[in-house]
Design brief:
Helix content: over 70%
Strand content: under 5%
Distance between the termini: 28 Å
Order of helices and strands: HHH
Shape: elongated
Number of strands: 0
Radius of gyration: 20 Å
Largest sheet: none
Length: 92
Amino acid sequence: MKSMFGGAIAVVLLGIYLRLICVAYNIVDCVNKSGCTARTPADFNDVMAQTLTVIGGLVSALVIAELAITQAGEAPGARMLQMTHRKHQRAY
Protein backbone atom coordinates (compact mmCIF):
# COMPACT_ATOMS: atom_id res chain seq x y z
CA MET A 1 0.00 0.00 0.00
CA LYS A 2 2.85 2.34 0.87
CA SER A 3 4.50 1.74 -2.52
CA MET A 4 1.27 2.43 -4.39
CA PHE A 5 0.74 5.71 -2.56
CA GLY A 6 4.32 6.82 -3.15
CA GLY A 7 4.09 5.81 -6.80
CA ALA A 8 0.85 7.74 -7.25
CA ILE A 9 2.40 10.87 -5.76
CA ALA A 10 5.42 10.51 -8.04
CA VAL A 11 3.22 10.13 -11.14
CA VAL A 12 1.13 13.18 -10.22
CA LEU A 13 4.20 15.34 -9.55
CA LEU A 14 5.88 14.26 -12.77
CA GLY A 15 2.64 14.96 -14.66
CA ILE A 16 2.51 18.49 -13.23
CA TYR A 17 6.21 18.96 -14.05
CA LEU A 18 5.70 17.81 -17.64
CA ARG A 19 2.68 20.09 -18.09
CA LEU A 20 4.60 23.11 -16.79
CA ILE A 21 7.55 22.34 -19.09
CA CYS A 22 5.15 22.16 -22.06
CA VAL A 23 3.50 25.46 -21.14
CA ALA A 24 6.88 27.17 -20.74
CA TYR A 25 8.09 25.75 -24.07
CA ASN A 26 4.97 26.97 -25.88
CA ILE A 27 5.35 30.45 -24.43
CA VAL A 28 9.02 30.68 -25.44
CA ASP A 29 8.21 29.30 -28.88
CA CYS A 30 5.47 31.88 -29.42
CA VAL A 31 7.59 34.77 -28.13
CA ASN A 32 10.39 33.86 -30.54
CA LYS A 33 8.09 33.82 -33.56
CA SER A 34 7.29 37.15 -35.14
CA GLY A 35 3.59 37.95 -35.21
CA CYS A 36 2.58 35.35 -32.60
CA THR A 37 0.34 36.91 -29.99
CA ALA A 38 -1.33 33.77 -28.61
CA ARG A 39 0.97 33.61 -25.57
CA THR A 40 2.99 36.15 -23.66
CA PRO A 41 5.61 35.77 -20.92
CA ALA A 42 2.98 36.95 -18.43
CA ASP A 43 1.07 33.70 -19.06
CA PHE A 44 3.72 31.85 -17.04
CA ASN A 45 3.01 33.29 -13.59
CA ASP A 46 5.01 33.20 -10.36
CA VAL A 47 3.13 30.21 -8.95
CA MET A 48 3.92 28.15 -12.05
CA ALA A 49 7.60 29.13 -11.85
CA GLN A 50 7.79 28.25 -8.15
CA THR A 51 6.06 24.90 -8.69
CA LEU A 52 8.42 24.05 -11.54
CA THR A 53 11.41 24.94 -9.37
CA VAL A 54 10.23 22.94 -6.34
CA ILE A 55 9.43 19.79 -8.34
CA GLY A 56 12.72 20.12 -10.22
CA GLY A 57 14.51 20.33 -6.86
CA LEU A 58 12.73 17.20 -5.61
CA VAL A 59 13.71 15.28 -8.74
CA SER A 60 17.31 16.47 -8.39
CA ALA A 61 17.41 15.43 -4.73
CA LEU A 62 16.11 11.97 -5.63
CA VAL A 63 18.74 11.53 -8.35
CA ILE A 64 21.54 12.70 -6.02
CA ALA A 65 20.34 10.35 -3.25
CA GLU A 66 20.30 7.40 -5.65
CA LEU A 67 23.79 8.24 -6.89
CA ALA A 68 25.05 8.61 -3.32
CA ILE A 69 24.00 5.09 -2.29
CA THR A 70 25.21 3.41 -5.49
CA GLN A 71 28.41 1.41 -5.08
CA ALA A 72 31.41 2.37 -7.22
CA GLY A 73 31.31 0.68 -10.61
CA GLU A 74 27.64 -0.32 -10.24
CA ALA A 75 24.87 1.05 -12.42
CA PRO A 76 22.44 3.38 -10.60
CA GLY A 77 19.13 1.63 -10.05
CA ALA A 78 20.56 -1.87 -10.55
CA ARG A 79 19.95 -2.52 -6.86
CA MET A 80 16.20 -2.08 -7.34
CA LEU A 81 16.11 -4.51 -10.24
CA GLN A 82 17.89 -7.16 -8.19
CA MET A 83 15.41 -6.82 -5.31
CA THR A 84 12.46 -7.14 -7.68
CA HIS A 85 14.00 -10.22 -9.26
CA ARG A 86 14.47 -11.88 -5.84
CA LYS A 87 10.84 -11.28 -4.88
CA HIS A 88 9.60 -13.16 -7.93
CA GLN A 89 11.86 -16.20 -7.53
CA ARG A 90 10.20 -19.33 -6.17
CA ALA A 91 11.70 -21.28 -3.31
CA TYR A 92 12.03 -24.93 -4.40
